[in-house]
Every structure is written in C-alpha cells, then in structure tokens.
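name: query_chain
kind: protein
chains: 1
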Amino acid sequence: MTRTPGLRSRSTGLLAAGLVVGLALGAAGGWGAAHATGSATGPAAGSATGPAAGGRASEAEPSRASTGHATTAPSAPASARTPMTGGGIPAAETPGSTPEPSHLDLATTWTAPADQPAQGRLLRVTIPATRSHFDARQALLYLPPAALTADPPALPVDVLLSGQSRGAGPEDVATGGQIEQTMDALATVDRGLAPIVVVPDQLGPRSANPMCVDGALGNSRTFLTQDVPAWVTSHLKVQTAASAWTIGGFSQGGTCAIQLGAGDPSRFGNLVDVSGEDGPSLGSVTKTIDEGFAGDRAAWAAAQPAALLRAGAPFRASNAFFAAGALDTTYGPVMPVMAERARAAGMHVATWVVPGGRHSWVTARAALAAGLDWLQPRVGLGAPAGAAAGAGAGASSGSGSGVGSGSG
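structure:
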C-alpha cells in the first residue's frame, strides 16, 4: 500500500493573496489545517482551525501551492462588474441551450481573466423538493471566483452535508466548517478554480434524522439524489459526469456520503466521509428499522454502506476520502473499517486520522479541507502534489495516525 500524496502546503501564493491557510503536512506526516482571513488585525487572523495547525510542513512531499498561480490582490467586487440574478447568482451562470460538458480538465485549459475576483461568494438559496416533497430549509451555495467571471467555465460540484444534532443544519457548514474560507483558499492556489459547493438540508426544519433514505421520516435520499442535482444543473454551469460530482459531510453527513457515494455512483463519483457512522441509525437497530424502514429489516440491511459497497462493486472510477479524529472514541474506530470496505470494493481511497481531533467541527473543518484539497486534481482543477517537483520527492510508505494512506 502506498501513501497518498499529502495535502499541499500553503505558502507564498496564499500569503501574497492575503490568505493564511495552512492546509499542510504535519510533523507526523498527516494533513493539518489552519486558516485566517483578511488582515492581521481581522477577527480570524491567526486563528487555528485544525488540531494539527501547529505542525510544521513536511518537505518530503512537494507542494502545489509553491508552483500554482495564485490570484492577485482583491479587485472590485464581482457584483460591480457582473450582472446578477435576483438571488445573487451571476446571470452568466445560467445554463444555455447547449448541454454543458460532462468533464473538463480545467487545470490545463483555464486562463483566469484579469478582472476575476479574488474571493468567491456564499449565498442562501431555496431548492424545491419537486420529486421528494422533502421539507428542507434553505441551502448554502458557494460560487468560486471563476464562477463570478463574465464567461465562467462549467465547474465540478461538491454537495456537502452537516451533522445531525439539536438545531443542526446547513449553516453549520459555514460557521463550524468555515467552508467559504476553505474554498477560497483552494481557489487561491488553483487560479480561481474550485468546485461549486451546495450545502442542502438533509435533516429538515426540526434537525431530525431521516438517515438519507426514503421513508416515513421523509424522502431525503430522493431530495439529495434528484431534486438537488436537478436544481444545480438548471441554475448553474456545471459539469455533468459523476467524476465531477462529490458528496461529503461530517458525522451523520459523513454517513450519508458513503451511503450515496456507494449507492449512486452514477451521480457521485467522489465522496468525503468525515467521522461517519457504520450505517444509518436512530440509536438502536429496532428503533431504526421500525421508524425509518417501516419495520422492513431487509430494507434496512440493504441500506447499510457495507451492503451497498458489496452490491455495487467494483467501483473502479470512485474516489473516497475518509477521516476521523484520533481522540474520537465513538466514530473514530469506524473510519478505518469503512475505508477498508471501500478499498476492497475497488474505490481509490485515502484516509487521515486527525491528530488530537475529537468529534467536533474543529476536526471536521480540517478534514473536509484536506479531503476537498485531495480531490482538486481528481476533478480536473489542480495539478497533483509534486507534479512539478521531480521524481525524487514522491510518495512513501507509512502507517499510523496522521498518515494518509491510499490505493489506486
């Protein structure tokens, strides 16, 4: 087993753009994350957001950031130059009559226009539950700098999900997950390129747990696999191939990610499972089957990620990133087991045990950043780590917490 090339160290390019984002290899050889935005006097300046934020960057694995073309100093807001729709989405993002491409290698073909904004935009949008009739709250929508230009390219899509607890919902991915800052950092390294991010509400207004299945608790699976993609493709210029679509999340959202990544690979070719469960659950097996599956034990068994992976194998085109905190004694042990199941089913897998991490958004924001960064080259938006550094600094074998391991 070889070690997956590590997360790229953010150095000169990010500093030049006014963003300090340490998506870097820690001293133990794993991924760490810390970020701050704005000037040194801003509220987030220097604030650590990952358990390994203090780790030094490893020189054993090269960085894309050192060779990437970062965006320059902030220019005028995109809204001052680009016509907008009523919801704040640029009019240029409206799909035309010609079908969008299924997949693009923008890493080699994209040239950022001179007036491209330095940062993306986070919006709140309403996604109609036309087919599912699922009662969902507003979703978050992140548009990267490239999407805010006069002639935006068709971009990949990340569908990200919150965890489930009292009051949980999409806003947690912005506040706890700080997804806007993370995506801006990725775009800074990759010339304004990052996926369009949609954070739908898979829980409903009471922050319940419909478990990303269809049933008496709500048709959340249909909402995520049909209503959300239908809205995205009708309102935004996006690539349509499964290889360009990622499903990801934290805790219950991570469980949903492996459920849908394994259960609907024709839609989601990539997944990021951070601190997910072994399967959809309302606590006990009996309660889960009775309330979530109308007493149908066979339906419950078929909805388990392990069963979905067995049924869909081999997943030759799927990429999967799994992470959990080193101190997460409840969900941490699930991660290597699920990762090995995915690997055995043919997925290209990377893992990360977050040093010092617990089951919290501190861990989740670092792990989501690491997973999305790992996917940038795989969705055609960035050169692989080490691509310009020569053969002498390639991957090495290793094991233990903090080490990313991969296959494929």
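note: The CA atoms of residues 117 and 145 lie 5 Å apart.
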